[in-house]
Amino acid sequence: MSDPLPPRGRRSWLIGNVWYRTATRPAVHFSLLFLTLGGFVAGVAFWGGFNTAMEAANTESFCISCHEMRDNVYRELQGTIHWTNRSGVRATCPDCHTPHPWTLKIARKMQASREVWAKLFGTIDTRQKFLERRTLMAQREWARMTANNSAECRNCHSAQSMDFTKQQPRAAAVHQARLLTGERTCIDCHKGIAHLLPKTEEIEGFDDGDGSPSMPELTGP
Amino acid sequence: MQAATGKWREAVVFLFLSVMVWPVIAGGFVAAYGLAWWVYFIFAGPPGPF
């Protein structure tokens, strides 16, 4: 504060600004001890708050806080194996739809900003509109899961831990022939396990992955 | 009087920097990082390996 101001002609609005001068000069009134502690505490609070907010946006209650998700996909999830099962494990929306690694999660959240946009413009605000766009949305999700080798499914399921003697013969045979060889990934064969399938006849070259025409037992609740 | 005013001003600047400026910069940095990945996936994707 005691520094003289620069001579008149060289003073700009910024350099001459007393707040700027306070911010860019060594503190006169507070000790380094206090300032570093203050910065440290603020940093911890920030990081905690940031991750709390991110986790809050990664819960099922957040996902179904809009009627678009609650009245369509959430309702359909009820009654599937991932809603109730003998093991008592309940898969929630983020278990299947958001990546776990931090970087990828952030990137997915950025992508989701377009979903906020769609919400504002009511892109899928009726069941009818939702059904019309479902084919497109499902294809995006399939493409994503194909590209990441069904990473979200594999957070819970692991091919290595499958006991083929306990699976139905059809499942055991096809898993050994196609899954273990890496020829196919879960989503190639297990579409529509959590929600109703879109009208697949609309999709050119639709393939449920195992070469058989359909798997009715697994296509929806 | 001069000193008291200076101390008050310094405290305000300190709070402003630690509670507003740096958090906004940090948040912006994370957002820019996420955006960069997102843009990268548009080209390397679609839809990118995640």
Compute the separation of the termini of chain A in Å: 72 Å
How much strand content do the residues of chain B show? under 5%
Helix content of chain A: 40-55%
Number of domains of chain B: 1
SSE pattern of chain A, N- to C-terminal: HHHHHHHHHHH
Averaged pLDDT of chain B:
79
Helical region count of chain A?
11
Low-confidence stretches of chain B: none
Characterise this structure:
The complex is a heterodimer of chains A (221) and B (50). In chain A, 51% of the residues lie in helices and 0% in strands. By secondary structure, chain A is mostly helical. Chain A has a domain at 57-202. Chain A is elongated. Chain A starts with 17 loop residues before the first helix and ends in a 32-residue tail after the last helix. The model of chain A is unreliable at 210-221 (pLDDT under 50). Chain B has 50 residues and is mainly α. Chain B has one domain (7-43). In chain B, 86% of the residues lie in helices and 0% in strands. The model of chain B has no long low-confidence stretch (mean pLDDT 79). The A-B interface holds A 1, 18-19, 22-23, 27-30, 35, 38-39, 42-43, 46, 50, 99, 101, 103-104, 106-111, 140, 143-144, 147-148, 151 and B 2-3, 6-7, 9-11, 13-14, 17-19, 22-23, 26-27, 30-31, 33-35, 37-38, 41, 45-50.
